Amino acid sequence: MNIGEAAQASGVTAKMIRHYEAIGLLAAPPRSEGGYRRYDERAVHTLRFVRRARNLGFSLDEIRDLLSLWHDRARASADVKALTLRHVADLEQRIAELAAMRDTLRLLAEACSGDARPDCPILADMARAGPGEDGGGSAEADRGARGSVTPACDHCPREEDGAAAT
């Protein structure tokens, strides 16, 4: 089958098929006399495998390892399980990081009055964060006596100075 047919049969775009060939995830297929790529069922099966692994969040390097294990009939299932559990641990860490980002953004949004005034605790928090800082939880820690977030820079007006717009 040609690349379009392989793409349709596998659910992987033709562009990604070419990319997977270029990086060695998929062996370069034989070509027709006209120079067109010709794919067989094995290639389509490999593409489906790669698509499923990508949908599960595996990196290209992890997929390369999975493909190697898949093709190795003498593999130990323990190797596949170990790779999968490492991926699960990475996912759990990313989920925790995303949850922390969500919580920080929720706190910042709650600290924002959302009115016509220019002071914005969300922007102040982002302006204050230094390299490698995520600003996590800062909205709560920086609430002033009137319940707002203190602006981040020295030239920004502070509500407690009476300089905030009303």
From TrEMBL:
| Keyword ATP-binding included in the entry's annotation | no
Q: Which domain of life is it from?
A: Bacteria
**Originating organism:** Cupriavidus basilensis
The record ties this protein, via SMART domains, to: HTH_MERR
Statement: the UniProt record of this protein carries the keyword Signal = no
Where it sits in the cell: the answer is: Cytoplasm
Region ranges (Disordered)? 128-166
Keywords, comma-separated and alphabetical: Cytoplasm, DNA-binding, Transcription, Transcription regulation
| Entry protein name | Cu(I)-responsive transcriptional regulator
Q: Compositional bias (Basic and acidic residues) spans?
A: 155-166
Predominant location: cytoplasm
Ranges where the HTH merR-type domain occurs? 1-69
